[in-house]
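Supplementary Methods. Inverse-folding protocol.

Structures were first reduced to a discrete structure-token string of length 368. This string, shown here, constituted the complete conditioning input.
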């Protein structure tokens, strides 16, 4: 009896479905057992699943880079490889020089060694992958690889911004309050400042990367750049990126606002102190200790400002690539040379190390 009622109910449901879909589909045939064939429901499935097929699972992106100029690939490989090797040699050499030379064991050079470390790390998060794509011709990067690259380059760029501000504060204390310099810029304070720089970078990159995980990508997976740049990833997403835009704006504003304000205030006080100094020799010494840091700061912020502070209507993909080359490859390569050429203490330390190396070579030859 119950089986008969269930069969009757099923037949009524089938008849209602037939009435709703009779203008679009063939009549549903029910077998003598009261079961409808599944193939008659297939026309109903596409409308129900259409929204699911729009969002494909992204496994990789294509970094277009400079693929529009195939005749320049070999030249670009040689140029970028040369710049990257100079970057490694110069910054590693600066770290070793500061570590080995006792006269450079001062707060200023402690910060400089970490600046060199950040320059190496920042370039290494982008340039090796680009060199590999130029060498092999494969321009794809996995989804995880793209997010990993985004995490590390945002972290190192943010940390470098705060480190440059810390170095400006160090110069302020050295020039405006020289008698208390060793007390104020203690080893503990310097260590806390450096750790805070890395922590700020890690926080910013973690927030940006986690926010990126919520995005879906259903359009083209082609990035017209040589690394995974956040704004271009937003443009490829078919999800609502308003949260990502707000997070990027807030963190970028806090980073740039905090670091630039600290740097401007420090150099404002330094300028006032220098103008009040009557001794030309003391004034020249104060200026010479700041020119290296000021040059590096202008290079770093100048490239970033050109990259991100232009109006959208005037944005050019080619100019963005040029600016990216400048602050990912050229600026890290130039930083050790700026400090070695414009800083008397670094030049003197290089001379002492060179003399020690030559003396060791002569002794080594004399022993044979």
């Amino acid at each position: 009896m119950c089986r008969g009622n269930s069969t009757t109910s099923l037949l009524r449901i089938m008849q209602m479905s037939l009435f709703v879909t009779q203008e679009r589909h063939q009549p549903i045939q029910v077998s003598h057992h009261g079961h409808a064939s599944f193939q008659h429901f297939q026309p109903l499935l596409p409308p129900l699943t259409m929204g699911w097929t729009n969002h494909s699972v992204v496994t990789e992106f294509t970094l277009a880079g400079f693929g529009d100029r195939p005749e320049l690939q070999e030249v670009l490989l040689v140029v970028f490889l040369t710049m990257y090797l100079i970057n490694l040699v110069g910054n590693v050499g600066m770290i070793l020089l500061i570590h080995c030379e006792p006269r450079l064991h001062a707060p200023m050079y402690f910060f400089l060694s970490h600046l060199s470390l950040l320059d190496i790390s920042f370039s290494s998060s982008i340039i090796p992958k680009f060199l590999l794509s130029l060498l092999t011709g494969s321009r794809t990067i996995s989804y995880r690889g793209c997010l990993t690259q985004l995490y590390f380059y945002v972290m190192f760029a943010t940390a470098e911004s705060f480190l440059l501000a810390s170095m400006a504060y160090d110069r302020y204390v050295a020039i405006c309050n020289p008698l208390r310099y060793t007390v104020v810029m203690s080893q503990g304070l310097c260590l806390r400042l450096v750790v805070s720089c890395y922590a700020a970078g890690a926080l910013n990159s973690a927030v940006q990367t986690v926010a990126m995980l919520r995005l879906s990508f259903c359009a083209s997976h082609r990035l017209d750049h040589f690394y995974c740049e956040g704004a271009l990833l937003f443009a490829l997403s078919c999800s609502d990126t308003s949260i990502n835009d707000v997070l990027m704006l807030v963190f970028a504003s806090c980073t740039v606002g905090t670091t630039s304000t600290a740097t401007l205030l420090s150099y404002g006080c330094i300028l006032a102190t220098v103008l009040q100094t009557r001794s030309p020799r003391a004034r020249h010494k104060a200026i010479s200790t700041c020119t290296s840091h000021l040059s590096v700061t202008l290079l770093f912020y100048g490239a970033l400002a050109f990259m991100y502070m232009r109006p959208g209507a005037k944005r050019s993909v080619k100019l963005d690539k040029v600016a990216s080359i400048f602050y990912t490859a050229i600026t890290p390569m130039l930083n050790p040379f700026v400090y070695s050429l414009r800083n008397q203490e670094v030049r003197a330390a290089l001379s002492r190390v060179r003399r020690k190396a030559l003396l060791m070579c002569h002794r080594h030859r004399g022993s044979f």
